[in-house]
Amino acid sequence: MKGGFLRTDGVNTSSPERFDALADRYASSEVHTSSPTLDRLHELLPYVESVCDVASGAGHTGLGFAGIASRIVAVDPAPSMLAECRRLAADRGVALETLEAYAEAIPLLSESFDLVTCRLAAHHFADLPKAISEMTRLAKPGGHVAVIDMEGDEDPVLNALNHEIEMLHDPTHVRSYTARHWRELFVGGGLVIEACQTRLREIPSGLTIKRWCELGNSGPSALVDIRQRLAAAPPKSLEKLDITRDADGEFRIPVRTLLVVGRKPAEASKPECGRIA
User: Fold this and answer.
1) Above 70 in pLDDT, residue 99?
2) What is the pTM of this model?
3) 17-153+173-204+256-263 has which fold?
């Protein structure tokens, strides 16, 4: 998302400027460093020669293919995030290329990567179809595009509640998209869907709202507002969103996501129907 604004509590919400200030947190964040969903991505695509990690943040997704891929490129518009990518890569002895760019316009050669991936970032994109088009362009024929992102809900009431707390947590949030929307986007872009898995959890045991807001630098007023909004929500709605509450009253959010993997046909002129897993 380009541009931004300053919240009344003084938290800078511009992007990528906002994420520049969060780089060190993302480097060590338990949400970003690992998850069962990342493990599932490796199960689905265990062998890739080259990876482009779009909107990479601190680079955990791309660096997870170290020792497997011979080329890893991290793309992000925030310079501090790319600096963290390089630091983590150097610490691990991993060769890494970095590129400062938005997901909607990536100055890399077409058909260059076996896997183009994006994790926990697409909900920020100003033009999601254009970003997916760019990711598809970068994938080799027969290669894959994989997205892990916040999952929207088909129920409009639940979706509105989910969107409200996401916006309180991070005003640069644009939208959490449903699995149906992702399927339409991938198929419309010429990708064959090989997996579409929903109701996944980046933190299966749940992340406290306090910790969630710390990672996002949401500010104290956002923390209070989120707690109040969840306390006022029907318990059934929280249950459907997999939000729980500890004995001390603190809420926990699982960072609910979906995983979509699409294959770029070897013959782009002959699109084919995909299977949903």
Assistant:
1) yes
2) 0.87
3) Rossmann fold (3.40.50)
